[in-house]
Amino acid sequence: MNKIYITFLLITFVLINISAQTDFRPGYIITNQQDTLFGQIDFRGDLRNSNICDFIEKGKTKKVSFKPFEIEGYRFENSKYYISKKWNKTTLFVEFLVNGKLRLYYFKDVEKDHFLIEKDGQITTEIPFSKWIETRDGRTMEINGKTHWAILKFFTSDAINFENEIKMVDQPDAEKLIRFAEKYHNKVSNDINPIIYRKNNMKNKFYFGPEIGYKSFNNTLETYESSGIFGGLTLFVTMPRISERLQFKSGVLFSKAIVKYQVSVYGASLEKSKEIFDIIIPVYLQYAILNKAKSPTFSFGYNIGKSPSISPAASLGYMIKVKNKNIFTVNIGAEFLGNGSNVFIPRTLLAKQFGVNYFFKL
Fold first, then answer.
1. Do 310 and 303 touch, CB atoms closer than 8 A?
2. What distance in Å separates the CA atoms of residue 11 and residue 18, rounded to the nearest whole number?
3. How confident is the model over 82-125, as pLDDT tens digits?
């Protein structure tokens, strides 16, 4: 039965992983001949979106892949807008953030995020940023560089008394730079507001709430024999910059188990047991199969506790976003013992569990 249970979870994970490879959403591409073709575009993470556009034209079924400069650009409906651009001897799709007196672009490579700034009469320039660790008076602190201030000051030198707005960009990110470009545009121009393509929906969202469930330990194991409830508080964080379907889960849970052990009394081996309460810190990544208000989910991670200290775990579930944007989830899952010295690799089924969460948006 336990082998069937484990096999079921593994097969389900493989099927989910295969189905989750694409996320086609309404959008359009702009050809090099300035034609606009509507259809579905595969929505991925920032790194992949900068290198390829998978497109299915409306009324057709065949997927076509475009590289930068094979098309002028592409856009998801009411969402991200990418254009072809050359930068540092390479070609890529850059996300067009703002189009006004300043033009801002964003792309991601394997090393870091990059932000580019343009203005009529000036060449495209990257907004630099660096930070480092310093020890001062016995205290270790993280220091943010200020070289990006010089670039922002150069591009906005015609704006009077704009130094405070520059200093508010302590560390370049999309939200701060978009706000900065909008303020500059309104400061120096009587034109209509700049076009902001990136909507303010890329922030991490934090949720917090109770979790309660039931855990059944594997009675065929020598040292575990129990069933009981568990419960606690859980943190739920969305990560749209990586993927709109990916979430992080952690918290503090309280669980009860009966541990068997052997003692020697006058040469005879006796079996004893004791009830222990465990404090568990779950650390999970959850993937929503559909980018909708209701979606099946798959989670994988580790439970950190006393017995065992680290145990791999996986679960299948269903997530529902309720009207006030809170989240309800229900999950069935399995917890495993690690593979010998490598506690991070699942080996033997430790317990089956069922749980429910209700998360309140912070």
1. yes
2. 11
3. 999 999 888 999 999 999 999 999 999 888 899 999 999 888 99
pLDDT at 1 over 60: no
State if pTM tops 0.85. Answer: no
Q: What is the residue whose two structure tokens read 């709430």?
A: 209
Q: How many CA atoms lie within 13 A of 55 on its CB side?
A: 22
- The per-residue pLDDT for range 66-84, each reduced to its tens digit, is 999 999 999 998 889 999 9
Structure tokens at 290: 């559909």
Q: Which of 194, 175, 182, 199 is nearest to 76 (CA)?
A: 199
Task: Please state, in angstroms and rounded to a whole number, the distance separating the CA atoms of residues 255 and 306.
Answer: 11
- Pairwise CA distance, residues 125 & 15, whole Å: 44
Task: Tell me the residue type at 233.
Answer: L
pLDDT in tens, 159-170: 999 999 999 999
Q: Mapping DSSP to helix (H, G, I), strand (E, B) and coil, where does residue 189 land?
A: coil
Whether the upstream peptide bond of residue 308 has omega within 30° of 0, thus cis, is yes
Backbone angles phi, psi at 311, to 5 degrees: -135, 125
Question: Across all residues in the chain, what is the average pLDDT?
Answer: 83
What 8-state DSSP symbol labels residue 325?
Answer: S
pLDDT band at 179 (very low <50, low <70, confident <90, very high): very high
- 167: number of CA atoms within 13 Å, CB side? 4
Contact 111, 129 (CB under 8 A): no
CA distance 333 to 180: 46
Looking at residues 327-353, what average pLDDT do you find? 80
End-to-end Cα separation, the chain, in angstroms:
41
| d(C-alpha 184, C-alpha 111), whole Å | 30
Instruction: List, in order, residues 6 or more apart from 174 with CB less than 8 Å away.
Output: 97, 106, 115, 198, 202
What are the phi and psi torsion angles at 32 (to 5°)? -70, -15
56-63 contact pairs (CB < 8 A, 24+): 56/24
CB neighbour burial string for 53-81, b if at least 16 within 10 angstroms, e if fewer? bbbbeeeeeeeeebebeebbbbbbeebbb
Phi, psi (degrees; rounded to nearest 5) at 310: -135, 125
